[in-house]
Amino acid sequence: MSKFAKRISNMESSAAVVKRLFGAMNDPEIISFGGGAPAKEALPVDIIREITNDIMRTEKRGIEALQYGPVLGISDLRDVVVNDLLAPKGVNAKSDNIVITSGGMEAINMLCQLYINPGDIILVESPSFVHSIEVFEMFQANCIAVGMDEKGMDTEDLEAKIIKYNPKMIYVIPTFQNPTGITLALERRKKIAELGSKYDVIILEDDPYRDIRYSGSDLLPIKAFDRDGHTILANSFSKIFSAGSRLGYILADDEVVNKLFDIKTATNSHTSMLPQILCAEFFNRGFYSAHHKMICDLYRERRDTMMECIDKYFPEGTKRTTPDGGLFMWVELPKGINTTELLAESVADAKVAYVAGEGFYVERGGKGNNCMRISFGSVAPEKIRIGTERLGKLICSKLG
Amino acid sequence: MSKFAKRISNMESSAAVVKRLFGAMNDPEIISFGGGAPAKEALPVDIIREITNDIMRTEKRGIEALQYGPVLGISDLRDVVVNDLLAPKGVNAKSDNIVITSGGMEAINMLCQLYINPGDIILVESPSFVHSIEVFEMFQANCIAVGMDEKGMDTEDLEAKIIKYNPKMIYVIPTFQNPTGITLALERRKKIAELGSKYDVIILEDDPYRDIRYSGSDLLPIKAFDRDGHTILANSFSKIFSAGSRLGYILADDEVVNKLFDIKTATNSHTSMLPQILCAEFFNRGFYSAHHKMICDLYRERRDTMMECIDKYFPEGTKRTTPDGGLFMWVELPKGINTTELLAESVADAKVAYVAGEGFYVERGGKGNNCMRISFGSVAPEKIRIGTERLGKLICSKLG
């Protein structure tokens, strides 16, 4: 049979990791702290029905929803990004610099199409988001890990690795990071933007969680400190509107947007029209503000419950992060517990799923094998209690 | 500034061709025979409102529409492809072998991700669809033209070029081809499938127009003659349901689908859920049959009007195709008329747009520069009459 392209064997390791370390997401008997899906209570079903019903009554808008549309996205939605999402966070942008994508993952994919040649180096946080690593490997990049602490990516280690490896791109999830929930400190955001310019490296700032902050104060994105276009911001509507709609966006300079026009054309012509229109109307009809407050309250309660339960049920010596937003918490168990090995038993016997930590480390070799990513966003508080108690018991039993 | 990837300079020539030879599509004053959009009358606006209203009333289905979904597409829609679109055309398939994509272009993109290394040869029809060529160039393939006549791709020339160039892939639009409207003869379909197996070449059969046949009889797709998985079928819902929904599909063997799972994950996680559900319900609630008849009647009338008007208004020596379906007709003007040069004048003075022929030839060098692609699908008959009369006058004036 015809051989697959070289890039396919490149992505096999991370794809296999994903398949091995996730899993059991959809079994209704399992309490899953695994997936990164938003809570079902956070999905605006009734609002969407109302908006759809209304826009499809007008012939003009109905046709707009079903006909081919603009490559870079509808102007209404690009304006929403500028006026409702970026401006209130201190980022000045023009809607001509916004590209609507089919979700945040497509933004990563398109920026790899634009920048990555086989063999290019991408610096990533240690740990980093496994699905982005999968995209980078598909584009035959070599990912090198940069250390992080409770303030996010270590900028001294970053600069040293820029000098050592001459990377093409730095990939960073600055806010309520996936998988750790850690937020990059303000002075480091500024520093990373400066390093991008100083060393002529693209900063890919992937910020899909920033709008779900339920404690602490907003921080300016790295993009706000960018003086010459080296930082490109990618974001998603998955957590604040609807994951299944597959809507995201890129903020970049004119020259980059110009090239992304061709890449988007050659990816899927444009993003699906009805979801774009529904999302724009969701903001323009004023639904976002109350919805946003509701989902932040919901996730805050779940985070609080999760922290309380981990502290209560997990063994002594367990460390966990304290996320100020987003959906994830990172748990480091006492040495000797291998979370990859524990997963099958956890799913089969305790009926609890999580994502084993080692898959998030591009270093491989067992790093993070006593860690787990705990997603609390899609689990109701009472199930968080039951699930953590069961999981905690299982872990304690292993310590003997 | 950071350099773009090598593939970006590769795709610049076809991207520039597209921008130069299309254009003026959206000016409401212009009668446009340019774009490939379906007729607005062919978009099921009222049906979609009714279905949306209904499915979003149920909490379960409403959440399904807004939450993350399966990578390869929802099972309802994969079943629709198998039972409603493939089985009636003589193709037996299992829904496990269907991958739902965000439109037909994404199917082409994903199959390039799977198979194409930089420098690989892809054989294409002469002329072929310019946006697919753009994708192939983004993946740094070299496209080589294979001759075609009124029965489609010339299989003798194809075999000679397979032997000469050792291609990775053969790209063919067998039914009501874009840009010519020509349909590949049955015996050639069989032959192409055999050549794929004999020489171990992937046949990418791109068949988005096949379901809009309004005269003549259905022909089996190339895929129906495939014995060992060398032929992969790509299709789209853009012409039979809605272009703006960005829905398409791939039919391929297990091993290929397995790899496409990883590629789709690393492209955009999955295709937007609400459009998938609406499309599946459109079929499952029985709307397709009457809608299909309506759009075929509509396009047949437009084709008939277009043929009559070209014969009436265009100069002696003009040749045109007689498509049995689809949206396009190919017109070859007498030598001496350069359609690329004429386009600006046609748009500015005659207020008529078309796509100049030479952009569809990967050979470049002016081939097809007396040809034009005429899209009649989205223009009402009375405007077809006015537009062809104006365009015909302009062309005749050039012949002196």
Written description of the protein model:
The first copy, chain A, is an alpha/beta fold and 400 residues long. Chain A folds into 2 domains: 6-43 and 290-399, Aspartate Aminotransferase, domain 1, CATH 3.90.1150; 67-284, Type I PLP-dependent aspartate aminotransferase-like (Major domain) (Aspartate Aminotransferase, domain 2), CATH 3.40.640.10. The first copy, chain A, contains 13 helices and 15 strands. Chain A has helices spanning 6-21, 45-55, 59-66, 75-86, 104-115, 130-138, 155-165, 186-199, 254-268, 273-284, 288-313, 339-350, 381-399; strands spanning 31-32, 98-101, 121-125, 142-146, 148-149, 152-153, 169-172, 202-206, 231-236, 248-251, 319-320, 328-332, 352-353, 355-356, 371-375. In chain A, the strands form 4 sheets. In chain A, strands 2-10-9-8-7-3-4 form a 7-stranded mixed β-sheet, with helices on both faces. In chain A, strands 11-12-15-14 form a 4-stranded antiparallel β-sheet. Chain A has a two-stranded parallel ribbon with strand order 1-13. In chain A, helix 8 links the parallel strand 7 and strand 8 (202-206). The N and C termini of chain A lie far apart (52 Å). The mean pLDDT of chain A is 95. At the A-B interface, helix 1, helix 2, helix 3, helix 5 and helix 6 of A face helix 1, helix 2, helix 3, helix 4 and helix 6 of B.
Key terms:
Aspartate Aminotransferase, domain 2, 2 domains, Aspartate Aminotransferase, domain 1, homodimer, 4-stranded antiparallel beta sheet, globular, 7-stranded mixed beta sheet, 400 residues, alpha/beta
